[in-house]
């Protein structure tokens, strides 16, 4: 049955890419900043390096995405970014000084930054009318993240933080090798259609959503940049830190697996607002307690602050942006959230963490998420008559 094989193969390849991308991310997110901390970098320098990675996500996915939509060479650009980012990451082995590490981060991020927005665009094409099942494909990334977060805690305790770079490079190299397996994108539409589609980026629903998504991801800056360091300074072991990260992602898996059922019952806008409210509560609680039991309970809220927010965001932006600008649409979403939002959150949290401590940094994160919830409740409604649910 060739038709069945053609249907299964692209989704399997897509799942594998999510598995590898977030498996590597499961090392980078909890432990790369910890590696920088062990090099002797202070909170401000760590925030600058982490912020540079996010700054690249603001610009590069947009540039690469527009180039891919205009040229129809999305797969070739995707392969190029994977290969170059893996090769450039190896430069981290050459220095432990701040300025060289910063320079390597800038060059490496130019090619690494757009990879996830390309994978998201491929997802929407491969799933087509079944995009509500996006979470069932994306969950393989969460599984990999949970596995790596759990394993890495013990690995770091056994072999030290120096092992982090080698494992990240190994995962990036494997993903680069299989990037050529990603199915080809369909031929691009006429140039005039693509140009007109760009106007959708400035429509009120898109602008309001992007502002609120910016605040949501900015509120995650303290978590992604300093949660591991915050726990280590409080006396927790690398094993507990890895367990805390894994617990958060395990909670997220339930949302991902049931994404079709959730999106079939709740409008994406409702999920987005609910997730913003939960984020405000989560960061407030993290600022307030260092109890291991309480921290574990708070980590479960990641199911909503990331899981439900992410699946709702991917589907919502896909509904608001026409197919002619699919890659650019996902790139804009990633640029405003994981790029500009994370960059602002990391820079701010780096300053607050260094000057006032982790508690105040997390309290500021809670305030940002609450502001996003208020704005989205007041203005985040699509025009009546425009279809916004699949």
Write a short abstract of this structure.
The protein is mainly α and 390 residues long. It is built from 17 helices and no strands.
Your description of this structure?
With 390 residues, this protein is an all-alpha fold. 81% of the residues lie in helices and 0% in strands. The protein contains 17 helices and no strands. The N terminus and C terminus are likely disordered.
Q: How is the topology of this model organized?
A:
Elements: H1 2-38, H2 43-71, H3 74-89, H4 98-112, H5 115-127, H6 134-159, H7 163-178, H8 191-197, H9 204-219, H10 221-233, H11 238-257, H12 259-265, H13 268-288, H14 292-299, H15 302-320, H16 326-356, H17 358-379
User: How much of the sequence is in beta strands?
Assistant: under 5%
How would you classify the helix and strand content by structural class? mainly alpha
Number of helices: 17
Major beta sheet summary: none
Q: Note the gap between the termini.
A: 29 Å
- Show unreliable segments: 1-8, 187-196, 382-390
Helix content: over 70%
